[in-house]
From TrEMBL:
Binding-site residues for substrate, renumbered to this chain: F755
Function of the molecule: Catalytic subunit of the nitrate reductase complex NapAB. Receives electrons from NapB and catalyzes the reduction of nitrate to nitrite.
Lineage: Bacteria, Candidatus Methylomirabilota, Candidatus Methylomirabilia, Candidatus Methylomirabilales, Candidatus Methylomirabilaceae
SUPFAM superfamilies the UniProt entry points to: ADC-like, Formate dehydrogenase/DMSO reductase, domains 1-3
InterPro entries, per the entry: Asp_de-COase-like_dom_sf (IPR009010), CT_Nitrate-R-NapA-like (IPR041957), MoPterin_dinucl-bd_dom (IPR006657), Mopterin_OxRdtase (IPR006656), Mopterin_OxRdtase_4Fe-4S_dom (IPR006963), MopterinOxRdtase_cofactor_BS (IPR027467), Periplasm_NO3_reductase_lsu (IPR010051), Prok_molybdopt-oxidoreductase (IPR050123)
Protein name: Nitrate reductase
Keywords: 4Fe-4S, Electron transport, Iron, Iron-sulfur, Metal-binding, Molybdenum, Nitrate assimilation, Oxidoreductase, Signal, Transport
Domain 4Fe-4S Mo/W bis-MGD-type: 42-98
Catalytic activity: 2 Fe(II)-[cytochrome] + nitrate + 2 H(+) = 2 Fe(III)-[cytochrome] + nitrite + H2O
Organism: Candidatus Methylomirabilis limnetica
Binding site for Mo-bis(molybdopterin guanine dinucleotide): 86, 146, 171, 175, 375, 379, 485, 511-512, 534, 561, 679-688, 763, 780
């Protein structure tokens, strides 16, 4: 029987749903078994998925206080009833045998059980002691894009309005900071202007540095469906190695050398300008041109300050940006003259004719264009720049902020947008897209939080890399790590793992659900509730805010993270920050938080609306109506009649086209370390695998992280698939099994290792260089050598 793609996806969805029995009584394998799992549920409740930033809607099946099944919610337009294999595995993530159930205190090399009262008293005493002895900058909190909006907003308020420290970071600094800096420097506001509807409305896709098929499979399936519906649809896959996102039916597969994307994007702009493919009317009305500093460094050394910084540079902090100089369109054209396709070919290895072909597709006035990217752009020592350059292409052609024409930065975590970015859970931000260094922003924040404005420090705290360097140095004494696993995810992680256990006054608190590399380095472990064991809100890639209620109890004495934040506040004599009378805490926090965005283009609907609606709403939400396309008249309520397009994040309403040059990477192969290393994800596992490796089926499908090696390189070294090999850099080494070809095929001179496997701790090898503007590290390229182990 021949199935259509849609029928096949539905069949796979049904088979996948059979994974969900928490008791293990129903095993995967057939639609009939899936129906049995569904029948086992007594009731169904709505929730977004716990995993990536796509924001799929899930219906959660409950029976006798347990989650026994999930299915895709057909009423949620994100996924339309489908889920990926991780989504179908959601119930099993709750019931691993080694869940943390009681607080644990380190005693030597062992952990002993203690009560919650003891744990919180110890935690509070460590915070108080450090603050009294060394000031508020001696304590820090490191949260996550998996943190709910309630939790993120609460820790932000506690740290900045209570403790008076801006040493609050989230792990989106490792994955989305360059996207944020790119949005702000080009448009003056964060978050995409388009939405997922563009997938069905465009006819040309440009996939930059993203294994879309494995990292965001539901969106990839929507793109594939669009492609099958219309033979005119073209897909261009721009990658540093062949992966599932460069398989057929991609029309153009462009494999380029690591870091050369800067030259490629400028070469595309060169072709578009030279061949008259620009939208001149759009440029004249809606664009300005600027150039910034060059040769800005790589952030490798402690306390790094790049060229535009000074002792008072933080006073004009918006945000981690550089000094900009206006230029004319003619000056921009002169800048582009260097970036001929032939010049870009020398740097990238991609033929000049292919560069022209790709540029002409994007510039064709008869075609629409959507550009998508993830960590290939963002985890980059010039991540802000390459984000700017893809916006340049859309601004030059006017293909932006309208149906089917959109640059769409894809988000890795479920609430990297809704919590970390929008609620301001970073060292330089305040809720609603505001900044600690801006006196007017601090004044507004102090009024909403009902604290003296002097309480909110104007100086940004440590960004993530500097925060962990400060812990290593001993400048930070106490750190609370919540919902994330930095001692597996940080680059050059060997330094920071050692720093965590140097002793002295250092004290690390980790809120976790399962044993992890970070929990193993803790002094105090707090057992946390996860997903539907608590009430929450997430915000996804397309500005969609979704809500869910608590559905089941967590195991043992595990507590939700919001409770932990409030209990710590009480012990720090700051409980008044969360005193809202009889109103439920989550609702009170959200209603206070939404005050920050009202009237500023970041409007959120009332709490009660999100509590009821399936699938949430895309902000700004004005008069009950969500916004699909921002900055465009007729779609965005902040663009007045007759304006057409207005990029209202910028004072003049114009977006910026940046002249950003190619500069070399921080490290590149040489005689001693002749290969490029790049890292990333696989379909089966979520980030560090702390959760997904507890799901038997996912673990069986991908039990370890291999090192993908080019066949020619492997042959020269006498290596074949399955051989143990040593991957070594100037910082550290790991041993992994070799994999020649398979789901990935790397070019000669490149190796790829996923980061989910704690037994193949690839971040011992990676380099902690970062983008000086966004402060996001570059996990995608460093120099290594390979040998048989």
């Amino acid at each position: 029987m021949k199935l259509s793609r849609r029928e096949l996806l539905k069949t796979l969805a049904g088979a996948g749903a059979a994974i969900v029995s928490a008791s293990g009584a129903i095993l995967p394998g057939s639609v009939g078994q899936a129906e049995a799992a569904e029948a086992a549920a007594e009731s169904w409740e709505k929730s977004p998925c716990r995993f990536c930033g796509v924001g799929c809607g899930v219906l959660v099946g409950l029976r006798k206080g347990k989650v026994v099944a999930v299915k895709g919610d057909p009423e949620v337009p994100v996924n339309r009833g489908l889920l990926c294999i991780k989504g179908y595995s959601l119930p099993k993530i709750l019931y691993g045998r080694d869940r943390y159930k009681v607080p644990l205190l380190r005693q030597g090399n062992k952990f002993v059980e203690i009560s919650w009262s003891q744990a919180l008293d110890i935690m509070a005493s460590k915070f108080k002691g450090a603050i009294q002895a060394h000031g508020p900058e001696s304590v820090a909190a490191y949260f996550s894009g998996q943190t709910t909006v309630f939790e993120g907003y609460a820790i932000n308020k506690l740290m900045k309005a209570g403790i008076g420290s801006n040493n609050l970071e989230g792990n989106p600094r490792l994955c989305m900071a360059s996207a944020v800096a790119g949005f702000f420097s080009t448009f003056g506001m964060d978050e995409p202007m388009g939405c997922y509807d563009d997938i069905e409305l465009t006819d040309t896709f440009f996939i930059w540095g993203s294994n879309f098929a494995e990292a965001h499979p539901i969106l990839y399936s929507r793109m594939m469906e669009r492609k099958h519906q219309d033979a005119n649809v073209k897909i261009v896959s721009l990658q540093t190695f062949l992966n599932r996102s460069s398989d057929q039916p991609a029309d153009i597969v462009a494999i380029f050398k690591p870091h050369s994307d800067l030259a490629l994007a400028n070469a595309m702009a060169h072709v578009i300008v030279k061949e008259g493919l620009i939208n001149e009317a759009f440029i004249q009305k809606h664009v300005t041109f600027k150039k910034g500093l060059t040769e800005i460094g790589y952030g490798v050394e402690d306390n790094f300050e790049y060229g535009g910084a000074s002792e008072t540079s933080w006073k004009t902090y918006k945000p981690f940006t550089d000094k900009a100089q206006p230029i004319s369109f003619e000056e921009y054209k002169t800048f582009l003259e260097t970036y001929t396709p032939e010049y870009a070919e020398k740097l990238s290895g991609l033929p000049a004719d292919t560069i022209r072909q790709i540029a002409r597709l994007l510039g064709d006035p008869k075609r629409k264009a959507v550009s998508c990217w993830t960590m290939g752009f963002n985890q980059h020592v010039r991540g802000t720049w390459i984000n700017n350059l893809v916006y340049n292409l859309h601004l030059l052609t006017g293909k932006i902020a309208e149906p089917g024409n959109s640059p769409l930065s894809l988000t890795g975590q479920p609430s990297a947008c809704g919590t970390t970015r929008e609620a301001g859970v970073l060292s330089h931000t305040l809720p609603g897209g505001m900044f600690v260094a801006n006196p007017e922003h601090r004044k507004k924040t102090a009024q909403i939080w009902n604290v003296p404005v002097e309480k909110i420090s104007p100086r940004p705290g440590y960004h993530t890399m500097e925060m962990f360097r400060a812990l290593d140095r001993g400048d930070i004494k106490v750190m609370w790590i919540n919902t994330t696993n930095p001692f597996q995810t940080l680059p050059h992680v060997g330094r920071y793992r050692k720093g965590a256990r140097k002793g002295g006054e250092r004290f690390i608190v980790v809120s976790e659900v399962y044993p992890s590399e970070t929990a193993r380095h803790a002094d105090l472990i707090l057992p946390s509730a996860m997903w539907v064991e608590k009430e929450g809100m997430f915000g996804n890639t397309e500005r969609r805010t979704q809500h869910w209620f608590k559905m089941v109890d967590p195991p043992g004495e595990a507590k939700d993270d919001l409770w932990q934040i409030v209990e710590l506040a009480k012990r720090l004599d700051m409980g008044h920050l969360f005193a809202y009378g009889e109103e439920p805490l989550q609702k009170a926090l959200f209603e206070e938080y939404r005050k920050f965005g009202l009237g500023s283009g970041k409007d959120l609907a009332p709490y009660d609306v999100y509590a009821k609606v399936r699938g949430g709403l895309r902000w700004p939400v004005v008069e009950g109506k969500e916004t699909r396309w921002r900055y465009r008249e007729g779609f965005d309520p902040y663009v007045k009649k007759g304006e057409g397009v207005r990029f209202y994040g910028q004072p003049d309403g114009r977006a910026v086209i940046w002249a950003r040059p190619y500069e070399p990477p921080a490290e590149q192969p040489d005689e001693k370390y002749p290969l490029w290393l790049t890292t990333g994800r696989v379909l089966e596992h979520w980030h560090t695998g702390t959760i997904t490796r507890r799901v038997l089926e996912l673990h069986r499908a991908a039990p370890f992280a291999p090192v993908w090696i080019n066949a020619e390189d492997a042959g020269a070294l006498g290596i074949k698939t399955g051989d143990p090999v040593r991957v070594q850099s100037r910082r550290g080494e790991v041993i992994a099994k070799a994999q020649v070809n398979g789901r990935n095929t790397v070019p000669k001179g490149v190796v790829f290792v996923p980061f989910f496997d704690e037994n193949v701790l690839i971040n011992l090898v990676t380099l902690d260089a970062y983008d000086p503007i966004s402060k996001q590290p570059d996990f995608k390229k460093c120099a290594v050598r390979i040998e048989k182990a």
